[in-house]
Amino acid sequence: MKRCDGRMKVKIIVKLKPGVLDPQGQAIQRSLNTMGHSEVIGVRQGKYFEIEFNGGESGTIRETVREICEEILSNPLIENFEIQEIS
Amino acid sequence: MKFGVVVFPGSNCDHDTYRVLRKVFHQETVFLWHRERDLQDVDVVVVPGGFSYGDYLRSGAIARFSPILESVREHAARGRLVLGICNGFQILQEAGLLPGALLRNAGLKFLCQPVHLRTENDGTAFSRCARTGQVLEMPIAHNDGNFFLPPEQLEELEANGQVVFRYCGPDGALSERANPNGSMNHIAGVVNSAGNVLGLMPHPERAAEAILGSEDGAVLFQSLLQ
């Protein structure tokens, strides 16, 4: 959906693939357990991006965003990406 | 032989590498600014260590879009030699010239220390002056050196003899304790399948003169000059 000023914002999450070691997530989990949150059994840390576009159709932008994610925002060997929202 | 040392914003081992090639091995050596495309007819391209683009996004992820990388890719495709050290290794992986990825160190610490490496394959252009099984001492200095490759590809890498160096103890034995960063199969350095591109996390250029505590790194440069 295009906003009336012609700008669009896309939200992207990049996360490590299942099975790829995430020592930062593990450290956060240990710390949560130490704080008393014994019910926490897993933490995975990822990256969040907001990209703003000026003009363009949401269909084309989705395609462009996919390319950007595959080309630079993620390393396909170790990471997956999710395009969360185009607004 | 003529060497070219690539310089990115944030490279910090470029002068060390240049010094070793010029002053220790007396080779013609030039710096190659990352915005250039002309490799100046060098025989060997060295992508040195450092923190290109501040390691933003992922180590090496932004540097691989620099114009010089296109020329490095063509150089490699012609079978010519490329050596990536530390951040250079990360950049060459991001550029698709070397297999795998280098994840955050398993212990989450930036590691700056001497390590022992076991030579696993002395048949490459980068290791032919060492012998298989020989233990070398060189320093590491990195935050992201944890070698990762999906299991099937890892098996293929091993079967092809592409693992050139592994972290080991002083006696050459492999152990979890001697693996500083959690690398799969203790991997410290690999070559591409064609054998003309090598990447390693340890710094041979910081261990090529007696005054620096070890000359073991010199064997890489000697191998290239053979």
Report how far the terminal alpha carbons of chain A are from each other: 5 Å
Biggest beta sheet summary of chain A: 3 strands, antiparallel
- What's the N-to-C terminus distance of chain B? 10 Å
Strands of chain A, count = 3
What is the CA-based Rg of chain B, rounded?
16 Å
**Class of secondary structure makeup of chain A:** alpha+beta
* Beta-strand percent range of chain A: 25-35%
Number of helices of chain A: 2
Please state the overall shape of chain B, judged from the principal axes of the Cα atoms.
globular
Low-confidence stretches of chain B: none
- Share of residues in helices of chain B: 10-25%
Give your account of this protein's structure.
The complex is a heterodimer of chains A (87) and B (226). With 87 residues, chain A is α+β, with helices and mostly antiparallel strands. Chain A has two helices and three strands. Chain A has helices at 23-34, 58-73, and strands at 7-16, 46-54, 79-86. Chain A has a three-stranded antiparallel sheet with strand order 2-1-3, covered by helices on one side. The N and C termini of chain A lie close together (5 Å). Chain B is built from five helices and eleven strands, in the order E-H-E-E-H-E-H-E-E-E-E-H-E-E-E-H. The N and C termini of chain B lie close together (10 Å). Classes of the chains: A alpha+beta (87), B alpha/beta (226). The A-B interface holds A 20-21, 23-24, 27, 72-73, 75, 77-78 and B 57-58, 61-62, 65, 94, 100-101, 103-108, 146, 148-150, 182.
Keywords:
heterodimer, A: 87 residues, alpha+beta, three-stranded antiparallel beta sheet, 2 helices, 32% helix, B: 226 residues, alpha/beta, nine-stranded mixed beta sheet, two-stranded antiparallel sheet, 21% helix, 26% strand, globular
In short, what is this structure?
Helix content of chain A is 32%, strand content 31%.
